[in-house]
Amino acid sequence: MTDIEITGGPAAAVHDEPVRFPAGFVWGAASASYQIEGAISEDGRGPSIWDTFAHTPGAIFGGDTGDVACDHYHRYREDVGLLADLGATHYRFSLAWPRLQPGGRGPLNTAGLGFYDRLIDELLERNVQPWVTLYHWDLPQELEDAGGWPARDTAHRFAEYAELVYVRLGDRIADWTTLNEPWCSAYLGYAGGVHAPGRRDPADAVRAAHHLMLGHGLAVQAMRAHDASKRVGVTVNLYPVDPVGDSEADQDAARRIDALMNRQFLDPVLRGAYPDDLLRDLATVSNFAHIQDGDEAVIAQPLDFLGVNYYTRHVVRASGGPRQAHDSVSPWVASNDVEFVSRGVPATDMGWEIDPQGLHDVLTRVHREYRPIPLYVTENGAAFTDEIGPDGVIADQRRVDYLDSHFRVAARAILDGVDLRGYFVWSLTDNFEWAWGYSRRFGLVHIDYGTQQRTPKQSAHWFAQVTRRNCL
Length: 472
Description:
Helix content is 39%, strand content 15%. By secondary structure, it is an alpha/beta fold. The protein has one domain (21-237, 303-309, 352-469): Glycosidases (TIM Barrel, Alpha-Beta Barrel), CATH 3.20.20. It has an 8-stranded parallel β-barrel with strand order 3-4-5-6-7-9-12-13, surrounded by 5 helices. A 3-stranded mixed sheet has the order 8-10-11, covered by helices on one side. β12, α14 (397-415) and β13 (420-426) form a beta-alpha-beta unit. α8 runs antiparallel to α9 (202-226) and α13 packs parallel to α14. The longest helix has 25 residues, at 202-226. The radius of gyration is 21 Å and the shape is globular. Residues 1-14 have low confidence and may be disordered. Substrate binds at residues 35, 136, 180, 311, 426, 433-434. This is Beta-glucosidase.
């Protein structure tokens, strides 16, 4: 991928300088099943942990649920039309495990398969390639009742589900992602309690993280045993982690958060072993009896690509207070004494500081420190308050500026040798934003949740120009 062109030489970082991406660069938008589909009890779909969690009083901002969401289950043709209008080459979406296998085991649900058959066919008809994620957080509730991700059996159930779906849908899908952001599934769901299933047990979170990665490896093995011609990868959310100062305590705080957030997943996938310092850090909450001989080799299955989700940078310092080994309410297991520092720079509505350089940092780090592997930005985007103007236009210039700056940094990473092959904007439409309900809008397309009216924002029209020209 050497045919990228940035005119203007060193001035390429200037906002209005043209940037051309390599031929064949993937441009797409992304979504996730529970966030958009709705139809939670139609055609045999079983309950997921997010159905249960969203209906727990106080769990979701405003008491929102994904019961209807964007009604994508019934409006998928309209949404595929929006993708085509964007000039997207690919659509990254997730399959709802409880729609396909309601109890998390046994044969696939024919009616649930029918929905994805229709969606995939519609995408291909509109010349948009499907890019599937097998697991984007909606674990069947029956499996959670049996122990959830802290139970080793869940990894085996996931591999069986992955193989069944791969056999059934693989004739039309070339790109497969096993997991999306396992850190969030494990630590927000089982330690911090702010995501489904809402548990607060740090030891469970450590077990869940391992079993998620084991499930990934087992799934890759099962899928490849059936057909090795498809491209298979995994998506992790990466953050640069910097100490606020030069003190030994601050540097160690950054090391610990980096180990928990980034290296816990990159190292076993790309190096075949968990980092030693992570295991020392987590020894206060786990004896690692759940890691069996051969597990790390299973996790380290050769992959065709790595998906990188990027949103912000973490700047941290040591608080100076005592480290509590068994903090039951923090996702930062064994590091709850670390403070996250605001730098006072512009931020999105999520409170995430806007730092395009951080994307360059994580991409070049993976390129520099790990074995060669093609990379895709599988999520990047921004939540802002969007309003429809009197003329019907949604002028979300801040989102345009955000995406423009990040796209330019991605282009610079390619010039710096990173094998970056594509970029998916989060998200296609506004949607159910997990614990924030419908209060945060990431979409290129505005959703009126009362009427389900779709309205492309200014950023959608801008993005369509980028995709069609393959150029900023």
